[in-house]
Amino acid sequence: MADVQVTCINKQDRNSSHEGITHLGNPAGNWKWTRAQVIASIEAKSNTFYTLVNGNRGDIAVVNGQTGKYVRTYADGKWNDNLLSLPECA
């Protein structure tokens, strides 16, 4: 199992707080996966994913929402929006 840092995301509408993340990636690691691929990998326990924002690690987990599964970060004992603070993937 690899512990993988996510450094960028893509959203359908970057400025919308309600549109979901479509892709997660890390250009330095030469990868960009769909949200569904990341969710499947987390659920299969194939990989773990995290963000590093201002020196703080946020572990990425799968959440079952009203409209389906999505990813969210968990750091310092609470859910947060670290993924949304990441830049856009190329």
Set out the fold topology.
Blueprint (H helix, E strand, L loop, with lengths): L1 E4 L2 E4 L9 E6 L4 E4 H9 L3 E7 L2 E10 L2 E8 L2 E3 L10
Parallel strand pairs: 1-5
Antiparallel strand pairs: 2-3, 3-4, 5-6, 6-7, 7-8
- Whole-number total of structural domains: 1
Strand order of the largest sheet: 1-5-6-7-8
End-to-end distance = 26 Å
| Helix-strand category | mainly beta
Largest sheet data? 5 strands, mixed
Net shape? globular
Number of strands: 8
Poorly predicted runs: none
Give helix % range: 10-25%
Number of helices: 1
Order of helices and strands: EEEEHEEEE
Taking all Cα atoms into account, the compactness measure Rg is 12 Å
Strand composition percent? over 45%
Tell me what you see in this structure.
The protein has 90 residues and is mostly beta strands. The chain has one domain (2-85). The protein is 10% helix and 51% strand. It contains one helix and eight strands. The chain has one helix at residues 35-43; strands at 2-5, 8-11, 21-26, 31-34, 47-53, 56-65, 68-75, 78-80. A five-stranded mixed β-sheet has the order 1-5-6-7-8. The chain has a three-stranded antiparallel β-sheet with strand order 2-3-4. The chain is globular and about 30 Å long. The N and C termini lie far apart (26 Å). The mean pLDDT is 90.
